[in-house]
């Protein structure tokens, strides 16, 4: 019994948070209660797992951990994106980074789902293009942005802005896949062993006229790069023009809505 009490006292001063066991001699032990039986109480602490006789235990206080608190709050606010954002920040501050990322992803998914639901019956591709710009600003993945743009193209296959946006997204997707493949190959490549360099006898360099590009090839490559740059500038100018036109249409639509509301109010006043 003395050895058992001595082992328990070794862990009394360790900074373990969670459940609290109050012994009859006035000492407290902090940790996580694993099991409670008629004659034994098991508690997990940083050094391992210890057991107490129920005859030595006065009270057992169960306290929820940070992860459990986050889970309880999540059940209450799982349908509110703004509350989920706050909960994600709280989880990150508590050191629960994986839970924080999951909660943030769920909040973004709820926002996207509600916006898609609001324009589900719309026949206007501009609604989906507006949603596409919102997904860009909100930092959604390329897959989500492509999904929204393809919805706009289904309504209007000849929409120039949607076709241009889809083309750029596909190019970005190809670049991202190439970069991911490159990083994956780098991880698989074992590190090279650095061996002491051996001095070699100087060897005369061979000139290979076939390996060096000719002036004609360089000039063709320069002209092609120039044409590509001009095409890119033209597409960017077209995109800006389409964007300005869309903003003007949205402003005009908003003015018409306000005027309609004002007329409705005037009609109701006259009827009264």
Shape: flat
Helicity range of the residues?
Answer: 55-70%
Number of strands: 5
Number of domains: 4
Strand content: 5-15%
Distance between the termini: 91 Å
Low-confidence stretches: 1-16
Give the rounded overall mean pLDDT.
80
Task: Indicate the CATH architecture of the largest domain.
Answer: Roll
Sequence of secondary-structure elements: HEEEEEHHHHHHH
Top CATH class of the largest domain? Mainly Beta
Structural class: alpha+beta
Radius of gyration: 33 Å
Oligomer: single chain
Largest sheet strand order: 4-3-2-1-5
Question: Would you give an account of this structure?
Answer:
This protein is an alpha+beta fold and 272 residues long. 62% of the residues lie in helices and 11% in strands. The protein is built from 8 helices and 5 strands. The chain has helices at 2-10, 66-77, 81-93, 97-118, 125-138, 142-155, 160-188, 215-271; strands at 19-23, 28-36, 40-45, 48-53, 57-61. Strands 4-3-2-1-5 form a 5-stranded antiparallel β-sheet, with no helix packed on it. Helix 3 (81-93) runs antiparallel to helix 4 (97-118), helix 5 (125-138) packs antiparallel against helix 6 (142-155) and helix 6 runs antiparallel to helix 7. The longest helix is centred in the last third of the chain and has 57 residues, at 215-271. It is flat, with a radius of gyration of 33 Å. Mean pLDDT is 80; it is low at 1-16.
């Amino acid at each position: 019994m003395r050895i058992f009490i001595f082992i328990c006292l070794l862990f009394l001063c360790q900074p373990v948070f969670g459940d609290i066991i109050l012994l009859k001699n006035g000492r407290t032990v902090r940790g996580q209660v694993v099991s409670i039986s008629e004659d034994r109480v098991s508690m997990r602490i940083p050094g391992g797992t210890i057991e107490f006789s129920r005859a030595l235990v006065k009270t057992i206080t169960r306290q929820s951990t940070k992860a459990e608190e986050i889970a309880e709050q999540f059940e209450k606010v799982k349908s509110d994106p703004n509350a989920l954002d706050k909960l994600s920040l709280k989880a990150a501050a508590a050191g629960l980074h994986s839970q924080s990322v999951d909660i943030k992803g769920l909040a973004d998914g709820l926002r996207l789902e509600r916006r898609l639901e609001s324009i589900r019956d719309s026949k206007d591709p501009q609604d989906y293009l507006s949603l596409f710009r919102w997904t860009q600003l909100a930092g959604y993945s390329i897959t989500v942005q492509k999904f929204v743009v393809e919805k706009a193209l289904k309504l209007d296959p000849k929409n120039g802005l949607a076709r241009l946006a889809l083309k750029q997204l596909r190019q970005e997707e190809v670049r991202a896949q190439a970069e991911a493949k490159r990083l994956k190959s780098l991880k698989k490549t074992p590190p090279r062993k650095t061996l002491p360099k051996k001095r070699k006898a100087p060897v005369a360099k061979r000139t290979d006229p076939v390996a060096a590009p000719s002036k004609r090839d360089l000039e063709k490559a320069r002209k092609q790069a120039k044409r590509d740059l001009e095409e890119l500038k033209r597409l960017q100018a077209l995109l800006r023009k389409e964007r300005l036109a869309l903003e003007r249409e949205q402003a005009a639509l908003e003015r018409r809505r306000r005027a309609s509301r004002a007329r409705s109010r005037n009609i109701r006043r006259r009827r009264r």
